[in-house]
Design goal:
20 helices; two-stranded antiparallel ribbon; alpha+beta; 454 residues; 4-stranded antiparallel β-sheet
């Protein structure tokens, strides 16, 4: 890998450089164009015998933007984009400062593709801190494209993501044009989730240390990081405003807990005195949702009775989502009667209540796809395939169900065990073909629901 020209010195020399060294769309041979067309965005490879041709900045700009009228046939846009990326990559290797000046003179879509190639080369050859210094010095639209490219290239080179995961991540990065929290924050989150090298994360944090959203940026960047990274991030936040410090601590633990609540809890239990907010219940709840068996194994490690109660309730809720009987069996295994009762109550509250059917929407009608064995509908005259058209609570007006979305319909059919609901369905008689109306009064009961259950 060739050593890059120092950026600052090269930028100063740009004013007297009349041309840049790169291939252009109008000067490539057919064989070279075919080779470049086959290159992917992530596969810019230098060729030993590819000596660039000298051209002026203006000619390069025109060749990138215009296709000669005599060219037959006109290049497909995907090829033009591929050519532009390759030009940017090669130009950055020849003269980085000149390549940046060229990028400023181009128009989209060629410019964005050229910048992708340019900063793919920058990510490959420069240290993260130096690469970010260059990217953040650019005007906004060039800077944003540069940051997206750097993040993607670093993720590609330092993470263990599959090709499909990388493509999904790349597409997501491209769509971060109007990020809710800011591009820098969202890219920080992507870098963290991909598990990039600590040097990259530290460089990102340093580059945006005065970002208005730095509390969220660093919380996302370092959640789930090493103890050293976490300690360094907390140390850096001590010079922030009190609101930023509190926001950072809360968000860090929230994001960390989503990734690995067990690790987040271990850190929190050792450092909670330094925080102003209590995150106990939130982290334990996440832990139970992610790894209930692991939380069960650690149940006796909780230092306070309140923490243990949070854990028992969280485990019960999590197991109830998997199956009522499993949750009840675990509750019964607890030695203390008080804890058993607490677990039973949590299972009951977490278990859905309804008519005992799996429901889907078919042509605007909520349709009973399957009747759950042992559920309230099992011994009624309602059948799988029936179309739900009306539901009526006792003492209330009938509710038309046609045209409602699935979630709204399910919420109307649910209710406390023992309560009743009158339902009306349509059914096509298989013998006569006539559409018939049937009704039934259903007493609701506990049930376990799948994705489309009621």
């Amino acid at each position: 890998m060739e050593k890059p020209i120092p950026f600052i010195a090269s930028l100063a020399a740009t004013a007297i450089i009349s041309g840049t060294i790169a291939y252009t769309l109008g000067h490539r041979s057919a064989a070279t164009a075919q080779t470049d067309h086959q290159r992917t965005e992530a596969e810019f490879v230098e060729s030993e015998d590819s000596t660039p041709q000298a051209d002026t900045q203006e000619n390069l700009r025109q060749n990138l933007e215009e296709t000669p009228e005599t060219a037959q046939p006109e290049p497909h846009w995907s090829r033009v984009n591929s050519e532009s990326r390759t030009l940017g990559y090669e130009a950055a290797g020849a003269d980085l400062a000149a390549a940046l000046e060229t990028a400023k003179s181009l128009q989209d879509p060629q410019r964005s593709q050229y910048v992708q190639g340019l900063f793919a080369r920058v990510a490959e050859t420069l240290a993260p801190a130096e690469a970010l210094t260059i990217a953040t010095s650019l005007e906004t639209d060039l800077k944003n494209q540069a940051l997206r490219t750097l993040a993607f290239e670093w993720i590609k080179s330092s993470s263990a993501l599959s090709d499909e995961q990388l493509r999904n991540l790349q597409n997501r990065a491209r769509n971060l044009n109007r990020s809710y929290l800011g591009l820098e924050v969202d890219l920080a989150s992507m870098l963290s989730r991909a598990g990039v090298d600590s040097t990259i994360k530290q460089a990102w944090a340093k580059s945006f240390e005065n970002h208005l959203g730095r509390s969220e940026l660093q919380a996302r960047l370092f959640s789930g990081g090493t103890p050293q990274e976490i300690e360094a991030a907390f140390a850096a936040s001590q010079d922030w405003t009190s609101w930023e410090r509190n926001r950072f601590a809360e968000s860090l633990l929230k994001n960390w807990s989503r990734k690995d609540a067990g690790e987040a809890w271990q850190w929190y239990s050792e450092n909670r005195d330094a925080l102003q907010t209590d995150q106990t219940e939130k982290i334990i709840s996440d832990w139970a949702f992610q790894k209930p068996d692991n939380l069960i194994q650690n149940l006796d490690t909780f230092q306070s009775s309140q923490e243990r109660q949070y854990a028992i309730a969280a485990i019960s809720r999590s197991l109830a989502r998997q199956g009522t009987q499993q949750a009840l069996d675990w509750a019964e295994s607890l030695e203390e009667v008080e804890e058993q009762n607490m677990a039973y109550e949590a299972v009951y509250n977490a278990t859905p209540k309804g008519i005992g059917a799996m429901v889907r929407v078919q042509d605007g009608f909520p349709q009973i796809n399957e009747i759950i064995p042992g559920g309230a509908l099992e011994n009624s005259n309602i059948q799988a395939g029936d179309l739900l058209v009306e539901a009526q609570e006792e003492g209330k007006e009938p509710l038309d169900l046609y045209g409602r979305n699935l979630r709204e319909t399910i919420n109307k059919l649910r209710g406390q065990p023992g309560s009743s609901v009158d339902i009306k369905v349509l059914r096509q008689n298989p013998e006569t073909g006539r559409i018939e109306e049937h009704s039934a009064t259903i007493v609701r009961d506990l049930l376990i629901l799948g994705q489309e259950d009621d």
